Structure formats: structure tokens, C-alpha cells
Amino acid sequence: MNWQTWKVSFGALLLLAALIGCAYSASRDRAMEVGSWGLSFQTEGERPVGSATMEELAGFDAAYAGDADQSVIYLTFDAGYENGYTERILDVLAAHKVKAAFFVVGNYIQTQPELVRRMAREGHIVGNHTLHHYDMSQISDPDVFRRELQGLEDLYRETVGQELPKYYRPPQGIYSADNLRQAQALGYRTVFWSLAYVDWYQDDQPTSEQAFSKLLPRIHNGAVVLLHSTSATNAAILDELLTRWEQAGYRFGTLDELFSHPSAEAA
User: Fold this and answer.
1) What φ, ψ does residue 248 adopt, rounded to 5°?
2) CA nearest neighbour of 90 among 113, 111, 120
3) SS3 for 30?
């Protein structure tokens, strides 16, 4: 092969690689079209199928579960407002020596600064649930998206005197490839979940039995559990829930650990 032929061949290979990369990116983005995060539980005790795969999410520094070979639970709470139960939840977490993550909105930091400071002081991660809890998939302007996240960072810094950990949870679980890419560009890791139940209706709280019927049989290795700190039921059952998960052989990890040990599917 002469030099000219080699240059043409090498150029063709580069073009092919670029086309493959573009095709993969386009395919990944199609898989991440705007939608609400959802789960399909196919086998009790095993990780459910999510709206996107672990591999697809990993490309955006996002995850919904951890290593399926590790008996670890990652406990997270969404906190849009205070309903009088967070102190009790924090007391139970302290008694069990469990570090959780609390995804808060701007109003929560403004109205509950002492609770936010306590979360940070006791070693919990305080994550970004945006300044105003908008449907972020409807925001096309990158500057508006950035202000929603950085505005919460500013509030947290002013309130706690520390930088906000770079973990993001989309309000209502509504996401798109653009959203995830924008959060990634701001240095964030996006956290979905692999176990949750309907606990957010204040006038229709589940009974303890109903909560346990969802949260016990569906727990699985690497579970990212989403609970709402506004739930009276969650505050009432948390001590027993953690005890029963511990008795089943699980330990509790942090989001730092989740992202430092990606699952085999996403590695």
C-alpha cells in the first residue's frame, strides 16, 4: 500500500468511526426521549427494569441502581416541603448509623434552614432537586436550566457554609437526554431510583402494612430507594423498615459509593 492509498484508507476509517459514534449518540438520545422515570418489577427481590438501561444512563453520569452483586441499599428522600416528620426521620437514621441523601428544593432551604444544616452536620448528602421544582424537560434554554441548579447551590452555600454536593434528581422524575447532558455539563450526577411506592398523597397515606408490602419484597441488591420525607407513614415505619432490611443482610451505602462502584452492566 503506497502512502497516498494509506492516507485515503485511514481517512475512511476515521469517517466510519465518526459515523458510528454519531449513530450511537443518536440511538442513545432516542432511548432517552422526554418521559417520566418508570420501573417494571419482573421478579421480586431483583432489580426492576427502568425506563432507560444502566448503560444508557451511565453515558450521562446518571444511575438508578448499584451493583446487583452487592447487598447494599442507597436510601434517598425527596423533600419539597416540610410536613413535620423530618426530625423523626433524622433521629431514626442516626440511631441506625445510616447516611441518606435528601433532595431538596429552594423553598425547603429557605423555610427549613436548621433541618438542612442538621442533614449536612450529620453526614447526609443534600442533593439538588432544583430551585423551583419545574418540569425541567420543558426548559430548552441552557441558561435557565443552569440557573435552576446553581440557584439552589447558592442558597445552600449561604445557609450551610458549604458547597452543595453535585447530585441531581429531576423533579417528578421527568427527564430527557438534553436535561441529563446539561446536568452533566454542570458537573452533576443524576440519581433516579429502583424502588419507590405511592407515599406522597397527604390525604391518602398508605397503612404500614401497605408500605411494607411494597418495600420489603421488592428490595434488591444495589437498590436506590426513594421515599418522601413528607410522609407520615414513612416516619412511622422507618425504624422497623431499616431493622428488617438489616436483618435481611443489607447494609446502607452513600451516593458517593454508588458512583464510585458502577454496576457491571454500566462498566
Assistant:
1) -80, 0
2) 120
3) helix
**Active-site annotation holder among 67, 78, 129, 199:** 78
> φ, ψ for residue 223 (rounded to 5)?
-65, 130
> Residues 96-111: what's their mean pLDDT?
98
| Mean pLDDT, the chain, whole residue set | 89
pLDDT of residue 140: 87
Is there a contact between 254 and 74 (Cβ–Cβ < 8 Å)?
yes
Which is catalytic among the residues 124, 133, 220, 228?
A: 228
Q: Which long-range contacts (CB under 8 A, 24 or more apart) does 196-204 make?
A: 196/39, 196/225, 196/226, 196/227, 199/227, 199/228, 199/231, 199/233, 199/234, 200/228, 200/230, 200/231, 202/83, 202/230
Residue at grid coordinates 390525604:
203
C-alpha cell of residue 45: 427481590
| pTM to 2 decimal places | 0.87
The residue count of the chain comes to 267
pLDDT for 219: 98
- Locate all alpha helices (DSSP H) within 32-141, ordered by sequence: 54-58, 86-96, 106-111, 113-121
Specify the amino acid at residue 29: D
Q: What is the pLDDT of residues 196-241, one digit of tens each?
A: 999 999 999 999 999 999 999 999 999 999 999 999 999 999 999 9
Quick check: is 228 catalytic? yes
pLDDT at 266: 55
127 near 165, Cβ under 8 Å?
yes
